[in-house]
Amino acid sequence: MIILKSRREIDRMRSAGCIVAEVLDELQSLVCPGITTHELELFASARAHKLNAKCAFRGYNKYPSSLCCSPNNQVVHGLPNKDPLRSGDILSLDFGVFYDNFFGDAAITIPVGVISDDALKLISVTEQSLYAAIEMAIPGNRLGDISSAIQSFVECRGYSVVRDFVGHGIGKNLHEDPQIPNYGFSGKGILLKPGMVLAIEPMINEKSHEVKVLNDNWTVVTCDGGLSAHFEHTVAITENGPEILTRI
Ligand code: MF3
Ligand code: CO
Fold first, then answer.
1. Which 3-state string (H, E, C) describes the chain?
2. CA of 101 to the centre of ligand 1 (A)
3. Which of 19, 61, 101, 143 suits 52 as a labelling partner, its CA being 20 to 30 A distant?
4. Ligand with an atom nearest the CA of residue 107
């Protein structure tokens, strides 16, 4: 069942989203060769606490951290650790908070130091695919218009779409209906309506779309060892079009 949000509720979700955006922005400026994802985790949870927000991921299905840190061939749900990041790495950071009874959820992929042109291109195409999808998040379109916007954008450029993980509705729960695959057919799926709030999150691989979960039961990696990038925004569908809530 899809829970529609009132204008007032979307205002409250904007506050949660703004906190997520702010923390991710600060994390981005901290990332450099030598820093560990454990340090990023400590920073993120301290900042959320200071802003009176609860970290959404810690304890969710027993996830042990506040931040997902997924370098290089890790797709999503990477666990923070004490290995220093190195120049040439790419790093996906996924963060969510619970504030004023609503969730906000967003992700970015960023370079560590100097990275290859191939890695930069993967990051840029993944981010652009998210914006292509957000443009389709308007009343009267269908869910498949969002999915197919991502798939066609990235496949035309030679990349592949992860199938095993999807975007989601969001509100008073971190995960609500509908599920939002990053592949599909335009014109298909449920009708998009004002008041829907969606966490759209393309996970894009350099090579094959195949992924597996490591023995820690969380970390998702590419099967072929290729790079993976991830971007996510929490987006409200309004009469005036899409509104990105995870923005400063
Ligand atoms: N953005 C991810 C999601 O929406 C992060 C969830 S991590 C978890 O599913 F630990 F909370 F599961
Ligand atoms: Co999400």
1. CCCCCCHHHHHHHHHHHHHHHHHHHHHHHHCCCCCEHHHHHHHHHHHHHHCCCEECCCCHHHCCCCEEEEECCEEECCCCCCCECCCCCEEEEEEEEEECCEEEEEEEEEECCCCCHHHHHHHHHHHHHHHHHHHCCCCCCEHHHHHHHHHHHHHHCCCEECCCCCEEECCCCCCEEEEECCCCCCCCCCECCCCCEEEECCEEECCCCCEEECCCCCCEEECCCCCEEECEEEEEEECCEEEECCCC
2. 17
3. 61
4. 1
pTM for this one?
0.98
Is residue 2 domain-resident?
no
Q: How many domains does the chain have?
A: 1
| Ligand 1 pocket test target in 54, 70, 95, 105 with most atoms within 8 Å of CB | 105
* 8-31 pLDDT tens trace: 999 999 999 999 999 999 999 999
Is residue 244, in this structure, part of any structural domain at all? Answer: no
Question: Has residue 78 been placed in a domain?
Answer: yes
